[in-house]
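Technical note accompanying the year-one report. For the benefit of new consortium partners, we illustrate the data format agreed upon in the data management plan: each record pairs a sequence with a C-alpha cell string. No post-processing was applied to the example shown here.
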Amino acid sequence: MKIRDIGGEFALIGRLAQHSPITHPDLVAGIGDDAAVIGGSFPGGDYLLATTDMLVETSHFRRDWATPAQIGIKSVACNVSDIAAMGGTPTFMFVSLALAPDTEVTWVETLYKGMADACRRYGVVLAGGDTTHGEAVTISITLLGRVSPDNLRLRSHARPGELLCITGPLGGSAAGLAMLSAGLDPPQYLREKHLVPGCRLDVSPLIAPVARAMIDISDGLAAEVNHICDQSGTGAEIVVADVLIHTSVRDAARLTGNDPLDFALAGGEDFELLFSISSENKQLLEEKGIQVAVVGRVTEAVSGRILVYPDGKRTPLSGGYNHFS
C-alpha cells in the first residue's frame, strides 16, 4: 500500500502516531497541534513550545524563481507561524541543511542572511544546527518558543456556537505559484505572498487571550477547519461569500483557468490565522483595532463540516494541500 492510497500526509501522521504511544507528565500537547507543548520548563509556569518544519527544493521552493535570501525568509516565517498559532513567542532556532557538494558558498551565505533578517524581525535567536550532503537542497528548522498557560491555544479548544475567524485574505501564495508555473509574471502582491510570506505574530499575542482554538493556515482553509473539527469533536459551517480573497487572486485564477475559491480552500502557505471565538470576545478585538473576518461558525459534530454557497447550496468541506496526493 502506498502513502497516497491511505489518504496522504495526515493519514500517515495518524498511523505513525500509533507507534509512538509514549507519554510523559510534562507533555501538555504532542502530535496533532502546530507545536508540541511541554510543561515544567520555565520559572513562573510558562510552557515550552517546539515545532519543526522542512522545506525541500522543487516541493517548497525553486531556485530559478526565488533568491536564496527569499528562501531563507520563507523558511523562518513558516516556523514562526506555528508558534504564533499556539499563542506563543518564538525564542531559539536550529537549522539543518542538506546541500549538494557543488553548491556555491555565496548561495548558502545569502540563504543565511535571509534567515537572519527574518530572525531579527521576529525576535528569534539562531542557536545551532547541522549540515550534510544531499541531491536536493533541504532546509529543516526546529523552532522553540514559550507561552503562558492562559494564552495557550490548541486545535482542540473549539466549542459549538463560536465564530470562526481569519486574520487576512487567503489564496495569495497558491495564486502566485499558479502564475509562476504557467510562465506568467505575478503582480507584486502575489509574488511576495508566495516567495516571501510573513506570518501573524503581530496580532497573535492579542488574539490568543480571547480566542479558543487557533491554527495557522499553511495547508488551505478547508484543511485547517477540518483539523480543528477533528481535534475539538465539532462540526463547522464556512460561508463562501465571507472568505476573504484578494482581487489579484481572482485575476490570477482567471488567467490560469482556476477557481479562486480553490486557491483559498486548498492552496496553502498563506500563514494567516484561523481561530474560534465567542461573539462577545470578537467585539473586544474590534475595540482594540484588530480587524478579522468571520468566515463561519463552529457547530455540533453531527452537523458535519459544510461549505455554504450564496445560492444556499451546501456541500461537504473537503480539500486542502496534501504533500502525498
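Partners are asked to follow this layout when depositing records. Residues 153-316 form a domain with the Phosphoribosyl-aminoimidazole Synthetase; Chain A, domain 2 fold (CATH 3.90.650.10).
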